[in-house]
Amino acid sequence: MSDTSAPSTAGEPIRVFILDDHEVVRRGVRDLLEAEEGIVVVGEASDARQALARVPATRPQVAVLDVRLGDDAGGDHAGIEVCRELRARMPELVCLMLTSFDDDEALFDAIMAGASGYVLKQINGADLVSAVRTVASGTSMLDPRTTARVMARLRGGPADPQPAEPEQPSVLDRLSPREREILELIGEGLTNREIAERLYLAEKTVKNRISAILSKLGVGRRIQAAMIAGRLRERSS
Asked: 57-79 burial, b for 16+ CB within 10 Å, e for fewer?
């Protein structure tokens, strides 16, 4: 799933920060990543407070964040709140969520918080390294076992019991009729080329329109706009 995030600078190592409340897991992820050429771990934290203090100081490109952080005030999704806060402070940072639980609600919350990827801790080491490289290159990435469910949801699957804030009508009122039309097609999973063909527009025009839509909705990623479109369709059905 492509994204518009800037890739890491060629020739420079990927700078990674790790947040996990389990020392053994944190150390294992660090050892795994540091054994790889072209990746350097610049910091780590065991709770949200430490992460929010240390990440801006270490300036990583990728933050690997545990979704659940023990007794943190954010509860079961404390790591997602860290992602949301860090992305607000550092829009260039990409976040890869790591979790032991296959949780649809956490997955959707992570995407809406601006995460670039979401993988289960059962993932093997080589795939985790690949996931870090993938999000660092500017490409969004979801664990294969969850991708099918996400796309089904975006295309009009079961309704989400807790709609996200960007769906408020006051936000959508910022879109022109043409932009709303394009948003609906994004929600159907169409590519820029397919949208251009459907609406008889130049592909470059569609790309520019989508950039404007993301800006007006206050989101940074196409999949977030697709989720908003899917939920709007659910509400109107």
From this structure: eeebbbbbbbbbbeebebeebbb
* Helix-, strand-, coil-residue percentages of the chain, each rounded to 5: 55, 15, 35
The pTM for the full model equals 0.63
Please compute, for residue 197, the number of CA atoms within 13 A of its CA located in the half-sphere on the CB side: 5
- What does the alpha-carbon distance between residue 89 and residue 135 come to, in Å, rounded to a whole number? 18
Query: For the chain, what is the mean pLDDT?
Result: 80
3-class SS of residue 188: coil
Separation of CA 78 from chain center: 15
pLDDT at 107 (0 to 100)? 79
Q: How many CB atoms lie within 10 A of CB 139?
A: 16
